[in-house]
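Tokens as discussed.
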């Protein structure tokens, strides 16, 4: 089932800056999609078109076959949950419980149903027992999880994350990747995330769109996109570190391979075969 369709979309800000140029993409139910590009590529602008925070200058955006326009926004925003790059931009209540309850109460969920939804969301992100704590006193990784819980509590069909691993330490990145993959696998929630961190993409995406200066320059499966090394480097990105190591070994004659490994697991399997 096609959930989001972007057709010929461009967006120009009031100052004349054109952030997106003729963007086309399709996202289906259950997929894990990475929008990969350098800073300033237009990733955040694209995401704001999904739920009507911005309206396309030209072209069309549809969610579940509904055009993203004023009369459809309540339905669209129930389907799409947004998690911002900086959780401090999203967390504003005085306790974790109030933070998660806020969106649910706006959906007119009260009483035991409200308490059950809060408890479920905290369990999913592994933050049980934090209900009374202030979100502002939590670590960066904990804030990310609470921001995620506040969105998951409303049971969206699509989870959109802007730079999900920004400001996390390596352990926090690993934990978040495992959590997001579990949410996709066990809850059937479609994942869409923007990043310029190429190392997380093979661990978290089935398909990738490369965005540069507001334009889609490549799209396909993760393996297909990372085959185009010259395109990756032309837009000021790089291969995943594991792939770059294998590329150097192949160049120096230590490996004879057609497809570069993108993860440590793939590299391990390759070296065991070799």
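Sequence:
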């Amino acid at each position: 089932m096609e959930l989001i369709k972007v057709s010929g979309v461009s967006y120009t800000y009031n100052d004349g800056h054109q952030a997106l140029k003729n963007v086309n993409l399709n996202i289906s139910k259950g997929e894990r999609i990475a929008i990969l590009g350098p800073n300033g590529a237009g990733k955040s602008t694209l995401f704001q078109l999904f739920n009507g925070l911005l309206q396309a200058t030209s072209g069309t955006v549809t969610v579940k076959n509904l055009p993203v326009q004023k009369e459809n926004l309540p339905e669209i925003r129930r389907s799409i949950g947004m998690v911002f790059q900086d959780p401090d931009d999203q967390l504003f209540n005085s306790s974790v419980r109030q933070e998660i309850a806020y969106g649910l109460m706006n959906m007119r969920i009260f009483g035991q149903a409200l308490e059950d939804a809060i408890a479920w969301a905290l369990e999913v992100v592994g933050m049980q027992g934090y209900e009374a704590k202030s979100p502002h006193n939590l670590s960066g990784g904990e804030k990310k999880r609470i921001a995620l819980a506040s969105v998951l509590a409303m049971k969206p069909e699509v989870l959109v994350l802007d730079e999900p691993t920004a400001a996390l330490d390596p352990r926090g990145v690993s934990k978040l990747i495992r959590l997001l993959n579990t949410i996709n696998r066990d809850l059937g929630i479609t994942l869409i995330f923007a990043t310029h961190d190429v190392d997380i993409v093979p661990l978290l995406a089935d398909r990738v769109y490369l965005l540069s200066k507001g334009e889609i320059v490549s799209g396909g499966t993760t393996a297909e996109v990372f085959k185009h090394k010259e395109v990756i480097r032309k837009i000021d990105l790089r291969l995943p570190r594991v792939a770059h190591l294998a590329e150097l070994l192949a160049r120096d004659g230590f490996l004879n391979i057609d497809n570069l490994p993108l993860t440590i697991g793939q590299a391990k399997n390759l070296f065991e075969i070799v």
